């Protein structure tokens, strides 16, 4: 395990007109991240993602709980923990007036990299930034800036990289490009913890993830496990005799639901259920006008665990 955290908690106290106000940002988070995986923290705005990452990167001290990161105790050996990780904040942190090269070189020196110029050139090349490396930060596009901010977090070649909402605000092409680069990091042996409120991103990119809401973990597993846990696949059928079809298909499904002339059949493994289902309908002489097979999405998982849709929180894509 590259991260093993237990019962992390953080409460902020803010001043308001009514006196001090407490915000329980993180209320007891457990987390295990294996070396070499892309681990996602998925949740709506204010769920506690950034606060969790800031605790794990030693930027703020947890009120309670403990963690071991890359073999070092978070509370007892914060400097050793820091030397093992790269951190790219939600805001990015690329400066306007100096060049990408100068900023990355500075980061390399701060981390004590022996050949700072060489390491900077390498990471610029890896992120296709060599061409614009000597232009001031403000002249870079959004996607280029995001790549510079990741290069800043990677120049000392840490085994573990934290990315706080790395693709927010990027267009689909830049997003896909960044997903590929994050996958390449995994291939080169870097473990990645990223936060996101995009369901499709968590689904496509993460080996495992946890879903957080109001500072608590509501679910954890691989995207496939999480989806299987909730409802598997759904087959939507339109047919000439839906009542009789429902009776016929009941033994083949986990659940059937009739809604007007639409019949929904829930199955653990839709692809394998489909042929048997079609055969049964044919044997009964029931005519089919349309059929669709859909996978349950992570939003169904969030809905099942919290009673709300992640889409309704205004956070999801
Ligand atoms: N320094 C702080 N002082 C007071 N409250 C804070 C502070 N930082 C975070 N909070 C509060 O803690 C809660 C969790 O915030 P956090 O930034 O961790 O959420 P998040 O999941 O990263 O959200 P987003 O997706 O919007 O980035 C929020 O209610 C936030 O207002
Ligand atoms: Mg955040």
Architecture blueprint of SSEs:
Layout: E1 3-16, E2 19-33, E3 38-42, H1 49-56, E4 64-69, E5 72-73, H2 78-83, E6 85-88, H3 100-110, H4 116-126, H5 142-154, E7 160-164, H6 172-187, E8 191-196, H7 199-205, E9 208-213, E10 216-221, H8 223-230, E11 233-239, H9 242-249, E12 255-259, E13 262-267, H10 270-283, E14 288-295, H11 298-306
Parallel strand pairs: 3-8, 3-9, 6-7, 7-8
Antiparallel strand pairs: 1-2, 1-4, 4-5, 9-10, 11-13, 11-14, 12-13
Detailed description of the structure:
The chain is α/β, with parallel strands linked by helices. It has two domains: 3-227, Rossmann fold; 232-295, Alpha-Beta Plaits (2-Layer Sandwich). It contains eleven helices and 14 strands. Strands 6-7-8-3-9-10 form a six-stranded mixed β-sheet, sandwiched between helices. A hairpin with a 2-residue loop joins strand 9 (208-213) and strand 10. Helix 3 (100-110) packs parallel to helix 5 (142-154) and helix 8 (223-230) crosses helix 11 (298-306). It is elongated and about 75 Å long. Bound molecules: adenosine-5'-triphosphate and magnesium ion.
Task: Label this structure with key terms.
317 residues; four-stranded antiparallel β-sheet; alpha/beta; binds magnesium ion; 11 helices; six-stranded mixed β-sheet; Rossmann fold; Alpha-Beta Plaits; 35% helix; binds adenosine-5'-triphosphate
Structural class: alpha/beta
Bound ions, cofactors and other small molecules, one mention each: adenosine-5'-triphosphate, magnesium ion
Estimate the strand proportion. Answer: 25-35%
SS summary, helix count: 11
Helix content: 25-40%
């Amino acid at each position: 395990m590259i991260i093993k955290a237990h019962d992390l908690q953080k409460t902020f106290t803010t001043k308001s007109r009514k006196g001090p106000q407490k915000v329980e940002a993180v209320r007891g988070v457990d987390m295990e991240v294996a070396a070499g995986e892309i681990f996602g923290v998925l949740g709506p705005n204010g769920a506690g993602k950034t606060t969790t990452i800031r605790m794990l990167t030693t930027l703020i001290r947890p009120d309670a709980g403990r963690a071991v990161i890359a073999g070092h105790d978070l509370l007892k050996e914060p400097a050793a923990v820091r030397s093992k990780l790269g951190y790219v904040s939600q805001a990015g942190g690329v400066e306007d007036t100096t060049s990408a090269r100068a900023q990355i070189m500075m980061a390399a020196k701060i981390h004590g990299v022996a050949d700072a110029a060489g390491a900077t050139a390498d990471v610029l090349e890896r992120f296709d930034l060599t061409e614009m490396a000597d232009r001031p930060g403000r002249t870079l596009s959004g996607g280029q800036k995001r790549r510079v901010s990741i290069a800043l977090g990677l120049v000392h070649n840490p085994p573990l990289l934290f990315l706080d909402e790395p693709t927010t605000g990027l267009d689909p092409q830049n997003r896909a490009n960044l997903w590929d680069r994050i996958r390449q990091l995994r291939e080169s042996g870097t473990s990645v913890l990223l936060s996101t409120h995009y369901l499709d991103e968590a689904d496509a990119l993460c080996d495992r993830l946890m879903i957080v809401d109001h500072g608590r973990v509501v679910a954890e597993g691989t995207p496939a496990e999480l989806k299987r846990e909730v409802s598997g696949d759904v087959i939507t059928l339109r047919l000439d005799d839906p009542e009789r079809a429902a009776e016929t298909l009941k033994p083949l499904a986990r659940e059937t639901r009739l809604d007007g002339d639409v019949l929904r059949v829930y199955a653990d493994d839709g692809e394998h259920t489909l042929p048997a289902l079609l055969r049964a309908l044919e044997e009964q002489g029931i005519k089919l006008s349309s059929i669709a097979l859909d996978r349950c999405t992570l939003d169904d998982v969030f809905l099942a665990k919290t009673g709300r849709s992640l889409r309704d929180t205004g956070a999801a894509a």
